[in-house]
Amino acid sequence: MRRLAVISLHTSPLAQPGTGDGGGMNVYVRELTSALARQGAECEVYTRQDDPGQPRTVTVEPGLRVHYLPAGPVEPVPKEALAPLTETFAEAVLADLAEREPVDAVHANYWLSGLVGHRLKHELAVPLLCTFHTLDRVKAEASPEAVSADEPQQRAEAEAAVMACSEAVLASCSVEAGQLVQAYEVERQRIRVVPPAVDHAFFAPGDRAQARRAVGLPVEGRLLLFVGRLQPLKGAPVALGALELLRERWPDLSLVVVGGPSGPAGPAHVAELRAQVAELGLTGRVRFVPPQPHELLSSYYRAADVCVVPSRSESFGLVALEAAACGVPVVASAVGGLTTVVVDEVTGLLVDPPDAAGFAEAIDAVLASPDLAERLAVAAVRHARRYTWDEAASRLLAIVAEQTTGRLVACQ
Ligand code: UDP
User: Fold this and answer.
1) CA-CA to 31 of 20 to 30 Å: which in 221, 265, 325, 387?
2) For ligand 1, what atom is nearest to the CA of residue 198?
3) Is the CB of 24 inside a 6 Å radius of any atom of ligand 1?
4) pLDDT tens by residue, 323-362
């Protein structure tokens, strides 16, 4: 039986995804640790306490415990300001682990947890596995203004240092693996691809009209869906621009946007989106829906004719995979992991360059051809079936097994 310490410092795996700091990483940590526990592993997940009402420990299921540890003020702190608290948090994790059976490895998520994991690795002399979720140098290319304004200066250097001392750096797909090599010079032999997945018990095809009724959307008319955190990197304005270009050709077309503001630029971005709706004369055609519990999203996917993912950068893109699993054609930017999740012209359409005109053209192609829509939907479901959390957990356990017999990488 393996015992793992899983670090998720800046956001709890039990927090609501789709707003604030909650997104794909929360879903990833929650689902992966759950699958690990089902395979007999013991997971201690550590996250920062940001609310006095949070219990010290939540036993989610046998083999999976989430621990809320205080570090700094017991209140929300923007993740851009959390780096100075990583040492205090690491001390708290070490104190907790000292009371438990030894762990076989540390799995850190995001660079802040990577700093904590790095300290734990040396204190406990166990292998460090890191999943970064987003990479500063890659994000900087897609959105230089966001990175320079929001990110602590130290991030890219800290990421590189943690990578250099990790026994394994986990990438979600070969595109991210390539980015780790090119932007951070990580040696190929330390990179392991562990694709995230989708819970097929919830995310499966179903009747569109029934799904619309279930979530209170009109049964008539064509529907585009955008799901995700609302911040410039996610590209929601492109979806609005595409809708505007298509309004005459498809008078019954509307857009549902599910998600909430995220990051320092989030609130202003949401205000801009609402203003854009009014300016483009799209009032009544765009509905903003607050973040939804993860499992409930499946009904929104099934309700849609097309799911749009206009991100400027994406390390993987769980939303595109979930839509595919529900049998909904995806129109996505041809960037990052989306080029793996969406097989162009087979399971969906990739747009390059990912602007409003390109999205409008691709959406139009799907709406105009029920045959194409059906063909994409069938292939998407088949493609999505390859991604299961059990497979991800098996890969992670195999990495832990291979590392526990080797020598630890020395700090540079
Ligand atoms: N999500 C959710 N409820 C919402 C909006 C999003 O559960 O209202 C989930 C969504 O199902 C997906 C994750 O948040 O699993 C977003 O992951 P993705 O990889 O698409 O983007 P990220 O947030 O990692 O940038």
Assistant:
1) 265
2) 15
3) yes
4) 999 999 999 999 999 999 999 999 999 999 999 999 999 9
Residue 192, strand partner residues: 170
* Helix, strand, or coil (residue 99): coil
Q: Quote the ligand 1 centre to 25 CA distance (angstroms).
A: 8
CA 402 distance to own-chain centroid: 27
Pocket test for ligand 1, best of 16, 27, 234, 307 (most atoms within 8 A of CB): 27
Measured from the CA of 196, which atom of ligand 1 is nearest? 19
23 lines ligand 1 (CB under 6 A): yes
CA 320 to ligand 1: nearest atom: 20
CA 55 to chain centre: 25
255-286: burial string, b at 16+ Cβ within 10 Å, e else = bbbbbbbbbbbbeebbebbeebbeebebeebb
Prediction pTM value: 0.96
Residue 316 Cβ inside 6 Å of ligand 1? The answer reads: yes
Query: How far does residue 258's CA lie from ligand 1's centre (Å)?
Result: 10
* Ligand 1 center to 271 CA (angstroms): 21
**pLDDT tens-place string over residues 237-264:** 999 999 999 999 999 999 999 999 998 8
Could you tell me the two tokens for 43? 């997971």
ipTM associated with this complex: 0.99
Structure tokens at 32: 């992966």
Sign for the CA dihedral angle at 172, 178, 183, 187 comes to positive
Beta bridge partners of 261: 230
Tell me what pLDDT residue 406 has: 77
From the number of C-beta atoms within 10 Å of its C-beta (0-12, 13-18, 19+), residue 81 rates as exposed
Q: Is the CB of 337 under 6 A from ligand 1?
A: no
- In angstroms, rounded to a whole number, what is the distance separating the alpha carbons of residues 179 and 183? 6
pLDDT digits (tens, 9 = 90+) for 26-65: 999 999 999 999 999 999 999 999 999 999 999 999 999 9
Buried b (16+ CB within 10 A) or exposed e, 40-57: ebbbbbbbbbbeeebeee
User: What separation in Å is there between the alpha carbon of 224 and the centre of ligand 1?
Assistant: 17
User: Does the Cβ of 30 fall within 6 Å of ligand 1?
Assistant: no
